[in-house]
């Protein structure tokens, strides 16, 4: 089945610092690098490198043609990626000595996605296809409702978490992927067990994947839970690890693999992605993921 990703495309400016900047403070960056990014683009590339048939939908400016080429170089279909009269979205990323990040995002052309564009694109997809979403583009609630009505399986990573997330649309999703902080925001609970139980009570028809960093991940759905341990890694940059997990997970499901296998492969891919600087460029190929799976046995 096909994967349709309504997603952001950004140019990431990564500033390497000793520590994050505090309010009122001016510091000098040790290094500046420029990378392709955006949660949507990252997820599409991850799904494509995992072997999925991926179609990326959204908007870039004329300054973002390199992002279009990058998608195409990774086998992503780009006929639904439009060139808009606006600057391409971008992100300013602080990266500290421990590999943790702090991010500011400007939507740019990503913010021009509209309902008419969404309807035109969805008309080319069929029941059973996967619609993959994040929260860096507008009209997310509209996409979820329209895709659900058309019979697509909606996989939503509601990140970055903010007031634009419509909790009422969670019930229309096939699967929601969140981290513990996002889980706390959505459920008002703190521990993984409490988050999972509350989410299941609120959205009994929606499957949940709760990612827990070095503690692995937990799937909950259909009356069962599956735990997946994290793979060992030597992280230098965690930017894009969650997007890598989401894209690989969706691609595995699109190929008919089991939840257990999808979790295992996505976890290995996320671990490998943390061992290189950047977002899109750090996403591993399926060959690299298979090697990590082999050596972890």
Report on the architecture of this protein.
- With 297 residues, this protein is α/β, with parallel strands linked by helices.
- Helix content is 33%, strand content 24%.
- It is built from nine helices and 13 strands.
- The strands form two sheets. A nine-stranded mixed beta sheet has the order 5-4-1-8-9-10-11-12-13, sandwiched between helices.
- A hairpin with a 2-residue loop joins strand 12 and strand 13.
- The longest helix has 15 residues, at 259-273.
- The radius of gyration is 18 Å and the shape is globular.
What key phrases describe this protein's structure?
297 residues; alpha/beta; nine-stranded mixed beta sheet; four-stranded mixed beta sheet; 9 helices; 13 strands; 33% helix; globular
Low-confidence stretches: none
Query: Which structural class fits the helix and strand makeup?
Result: alpha/beta
Give me the number of helical elements: 9
Sketch the major β-sheet: 9 strands, mixed
Span between N and C termini? 30 Å
Global mean pLDDT: 95
Question: What does the radius of gyration come to?
Answer: 18 Å
Secondary structure: helix percent: 25-40%
What is the strand arrangement across the widest sheet?
5-4-1-8-9-10-11-12-13
| Percent of residues in β-strands | 15-25%
Identify the overall geometry: globular
Number of strands: 13
H and E order? EEEHEHEEEHEHEEHHEEEHHH
Compact description:
The chain is an alpha/beta fold and 297 residues long.
Strand and helix map with partners:
Blueprint lengths: L1 E5 L3 E7 L14 E7 L1 H11 L3 E8 L4 H9 L7 E3 L5 E7 L5 E6 L8 H8 L7 E4 L6 H10 L3 E4 L18 E5 H8 L4 H11 L4 E5 L5 E5 L2 E5 L12 H14 L4 H15 L12 H11 L1
Parallel strand pairs: 1-4, 1-8, 2-6, 4-5, 8-9, 9-10, 10-11
Antiparallel strand pairs: 2-3, 6-7, 11-12, 12-13
Helix pairs in contact: 1-7, 3-4, 5-6, 7-8, 8-9
């Amino acid at each position: 089945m096909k994967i349709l990703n309504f997603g952001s495309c950004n140019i990431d400016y990564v500033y390497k610092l000793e520590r994050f900047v505090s309010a009122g403070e001016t510091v000098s960056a040790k290094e500046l690098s420029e990378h392709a990014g955006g949660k949507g683009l990252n997820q599409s590339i991850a799904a494509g490198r995992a072997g999925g048939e991926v179609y990326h939908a959204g908007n870039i400016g004329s300054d973002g043609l390199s992002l279009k080429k990058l998608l195409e170089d990774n086998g992503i279909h780009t006929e639904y990626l439009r060139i808009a009269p606006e600057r391409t979205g971008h992100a300013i990323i602080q990266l500290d000595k421990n590999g943790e990040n702090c991010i500011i995002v400007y939507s740019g052309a990503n913010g021009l996605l509209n309902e008419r564009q969404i309807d035109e694109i969805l008309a080319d997809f069929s029941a059973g296809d996967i619609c993959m979403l994040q929260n860096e583009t507008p009209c997310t609630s509209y996409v979820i409702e329209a895709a659900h009505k058309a019979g697509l399986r909606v996989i939503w990573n509601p990140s970055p978490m903010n007031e634009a997330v419509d909790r009422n649309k969670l019930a229309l999703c096939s699967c929601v992927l969140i981290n513990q902080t996002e889980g706390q925001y959505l459920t008002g609970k703190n521990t993984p067990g409490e988050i999972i139980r509350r989410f299941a009570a609120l959205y009994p028809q929606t499957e949940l994947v709760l990612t827990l960093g070095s503690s692995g991940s937990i799937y909950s759905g259909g009356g069962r839970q599956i735990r997946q341990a994290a793979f060992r890694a030597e992280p230098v940059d965690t930017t894009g690890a969650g997007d890598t997990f989401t894209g690989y997970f969706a691609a595995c499901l699109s190929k008919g693999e089991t939840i257990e296998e999808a979790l295992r492969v996505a976890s290995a891919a996320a671990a490998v992605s943390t061992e290189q600087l950047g977002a899109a460029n750090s996403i591993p190929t399926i060959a690299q993921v298979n090697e990590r799976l082999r050596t972890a046995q």
